[in-house]
Amino acid sequence: VEAVHLIANGKAPRIPQPEEGATYERIQKKENAEISWDQPAAALHNWIRGHDKVPGAWTTINGQVVTFYGSSLLDSSVPAGQELTIKGASRPGLVTKNGLVVFGNDGKMVLVRNLQFEDGKMIPASKYFSADDTTALELTEEEKKIAEDIR
Questions:
Q1: Which of 24, 43, 79, 114 has the smallest set of CB atoms within 10 Å of its CB?
Q2: What is the pTM for the complete model shown?
Q3: CA–CA distance from 9 to each of 4, 5, 17 (Å)?
Q4: Peptide bond connecting 124 to the previous residue in cis, omega within 30 degrees of 0
Q5: Is the peptide bond before 97 cis (omega within 30 degrees of 0)?
Q6: Which helix (H) or strand (E) holds 68?
Q7: 25-56 pLDDT, tens per residue?
Q8: Within a 13 Å sphere around the CA of 75, how many CA atoms are in the beta-carbon half?
Q9: Please, which residues bridge with residue 58 across strands?
Q10: Domain Formyl transferase C-terminal, which positions (predicted)?
Q11: What are the boundaries of each domain within the chain?
Q12: What is the DSSP letter of 54?
C-alpha cells in the first residue's frame, strides 16, 4: 500500500537499471546465432526456433552461410534423401521431400523446412539441390497476346 501511495504521489524512488549483464541486444546479432552442432537434437531445434525469424540460426554449407527456418523434431526412422555436408556437423544432413533433416549428437533428428542464402533468396529446404535449376517460361501465342495487352 505504501509503494502504491508513493507512486501515486510521484515520490517513488527511481533507480536506473544497470546495463551491465543486459544480454537482449547481443543475442539478436547474426554473428551470435551460429549453430553449434555438438548438441542433442532437442537443443538444435530450440536454437533454430529461438532465432526464427530474427536473426535466424545459421551454418556454413559449401562455403556459404545458410540460415535455417521452421524446424521441428522428427521422431521416425531415418528418411531417404540426398546427403548434404554441413560444416561442423558430425554427420551429413539429408535433403528429403519434406525438408532438410539434420542430426543431433544424440542421433535424433530435426527437420528444417526453409533455407535462406546470403543473397536473401529463400527456398524450401526440400528444393536445395534443385535451387539452381532455372527454366524459361514459354508462353503460347494467346498468352503472349494477353501479356502484351496487360503491359
A1: 24
A2: 0.69
A3: 9, 6, 22
A4: no
A5: no
A6: strand 64-74
A7: 555 678 888 999 999 999 999 999 988 888 88
A8: 2
A9: 34, 67
A10: 29-130
A11: 30-131
A12: T
